[in-house]
Amino acid sequence: MVSSGGLILKGFDSEDKVYLEGDLADPLSVVGGEHSGDLLCVGDSAILVGDRDELKEYLVSRPERLEKLFVDVEKDLSLCSGKGPFDLDEFTASLVAKKQCWLEEYPPLLFGEKSLYRKGIRLIERKEYPSAQEVLRSYLDQYQNSPLSRPVKLFYAFSCFLNDFLEDALASIMDILESAEDEISRIARFFVCHMGLFESGFKFLYKGPRYSSDLFRILKADYRRIRKADSDRIVFEEGRKAGSVLFLLKGEIALLKKRGDKNSVLFTIKSPSSIGEIQVLSRSKWDTTLKIKSNSEYILIDRDKLVQYLIHKSPQDGFRMVEYLLGYIRQTSVT
Question: Cyclic nucleotide-binding domain: from which residue to which, for each copy (predicted)?
Fold first, then answer.
């Protein structure tokens, strides 16, 4: 991410520790874990390179720099959300193309595994999704401890999604993510954020931004309109434009997804937590319906007040939010 007169940052993973500022810096060699090369710094530009903790210390101590970085990330987020729709056919083709490779990487142990695996994938190719889900479920019931069950869980999650069984799809993906990180888990994470969930899917995967308890104390003491739910009720509806971030101070929120004319619960979020940062900052619509549970307390904050609290009143939490947004951009952009 590049900003004239501001910061040049490549995420928060670099091990380099160099900072320059001035009218002209002749080519400077920078070597990192992923990138290396010469940089030419001209005018009032600034280069900041460091590990996560060093960047955090610098930005938290300078809220004006943190706000500039946040604004740049907000612009990137809007561009990310403005991309074309997820190409389901292309994704299907890319999954199916890996079937033989995964068969070799995760070799079956018992007789009969290979035929069920291939049959389930053939049914996906034929768009016979209910049958594919049934066959792949049968495989997992019989061979759940086989190495080949790992790619089968991904194909099964995909078939559940195609049959509109989102809860089962998410459960299968969580089984995948409980094991070691590999290509299948990376694809599973990418897929969750393209199941029509977007921010809700990212929240399901990573829980964050994991704000500090200090922030929630500030909000509770400072904010005049703490809302209380005496009974279960809908706060935001799927498809409506997101205008406020919800900070849950007490209780629980259920995230629901439309299935025909009904809503089904995908998962729940417990306090203290928040949701809506990505959808509000990208000016998008709610991807799920939010139902607040009885005896819960929450507040709603618009974009400008969000910046005021996270950048100027609790900059360490502003840094956490920026990390969260960058993580979402990376997750939804790369398989």
Answer: 223-310
- Number of Cβ within a 10 Å radius of residue 198: 23
**Residue 63, preceding peptide bond in cis (omega within 30° of 0):** no
Asked whether the beta carbons of 176 and 184 are under 8 A apart, the reply is yes
What are the backbone angles phi and psi of residue 241, rounded to the nearest 5°? -65, 135
| Residue numbers in the chain where pLDDT is lower than 70 | 1-50, 81-85, 334-335
Smallest CA-to-CA distance from 305 within 241, 222, 198, 238 is with 222
CA 73 to chain centre: 15
Question: Can you list the domains of the chain with their CATH numbers?
Answer: 1-50 (no CATH), 88-195 (1.25.40.10), 200-333 (2.60.120.10)
Q: Give the H or E element holding residue 222.
A: helix 213-222
> What number of other Cβ atoms are within 10 A of residue 145's Cβ?
7
What sign for the dihedral angle of Cα 234, 238, 239, 244?
Answer: positive
Tell me the backbone φ, ψ of residue 199, rounded to 5 degrees.
Answer: -60, -40
Under 8 Å between Cβ of 50 and 16: yes
Model confidence, pTM: 0.80
Length of the chain: 335
Q: What is the DSSP string of 285-327?
A: B-SSEEEEPTTEEEEEE-HHHHHIIIIII-HHHHHHHHHHHHH
pLDDT in tens, 94-118: 999 999 999 999 999 999 999 999 9
Tokens, residue 159: 């078939």
Q: What is the pLDDT of residue 86?
A: 74
Residue with tokens 């498809």: 239
